[in-house]
Design a protein that fits this description.
globular; 226 residues; 16 strands; mainly beta; 4 helices; 7-stranded antiparallel beta sheet; 3-stranded antiparallel beta sheet; 12% helix
Length: 226
């Protein structure tokens, strides 16, 4: 991360998509900011109007982010004609970051809402299922978590969330995306629906199918719910 040039940031304002993303952050969300290696838990949010007539700011939203011993504040400030966003270091293990303020150019809210997850006894963390293992009726974490001797099981996510927290590697790298119902292009028979996982799922625009209804053998278009 590079330290903020406050003047340049204020003059440029923010992309509307980034503003909307920050406005939609909720407590309990998991974020990646500026593509940094840290994966942040959102532990608190404060929205505050600014009534001082001598202050050009109209309001601000501050999200408290936690990752290990590091605590940062993600601040979105509204002006009459623009927004600015900055990341303030409140506590850190890296002394070179003490007191720094970073410009924010990207925020990603990681998807936690999947229908099924993988857990093991005595743990307080859930994983996304490994799709290949699940296809054979086995329960394994998608991240390849190295936990020798652990016995995993697949459960509905609403039975463990929010008591359990999500595996940061699964949340960050599996990128689950809902797959709308795929139908045969020839006879319209419903073939499948569900969740796609993996860093490249956004590039998927078709599935190779063999229709059991009309023997169509080819590619069916798919629609992903990003």
């Amino acid at each position: 991360m590079g330290a903020t040039d406050a003047t340049a940031t204020a003059d440029a304002g923010l992309d509307s998509a980034l503003v909307e993303t920050i406005q939609h952050i909720e407590e309990g969300d998991v974020l990646v900011v500026n593509g940094d290696s840290r994966t942040w838990d959102v532990t608190d949010i404060v929205d505050r109007s600014i009534e001082d007539p001598n202050d050009a700011r109209e309001s601000k939203r501050v999200c408290r982010l936690s990752c290990g011993a590091s605590v940062f504040g993600l601040e979105l400030v509204a002006y009459p004609d623009r927004y600015t966003a900055s990341l303030h270091v409140l506590a850190t293990e890296d002394w070179t970051e003490d007191g720094q303020v970073f410009e924010v150019h990207d925020v990603e809210i990681l998807t936690q809402d999947v229908p099924w997850v993988v857990v093991t006894g005595g743990a307080d963390r859930y994983h996304f299922p490994d799709p290949e293992a699940a296809a054979f009726g086995e329960a394994q974490p998608a991240c390849g978590c190295d936990n020798p001797g652990a016995s995993y099981r697949i459960v509905r996510s609403n039975t463990v969330r929010p008591t359990y927290s999500g595996c940061k590697d699964c949340l960050r790298y599996e990128k689950p995306v809902a797959l709308e119902s795929v139908r045969c292009p020839s006879c319209s028979k419903a073939i499948c629906h569900g969740i796609l996982q993996g860093g490249a799922v956004g590039a998927v625009d078709g599935l190779s199918i063999t229709c059991p209804g009309c023997d169509f053998d080819g590619v069916a278009d798919v629609v992903l719910d990003h």
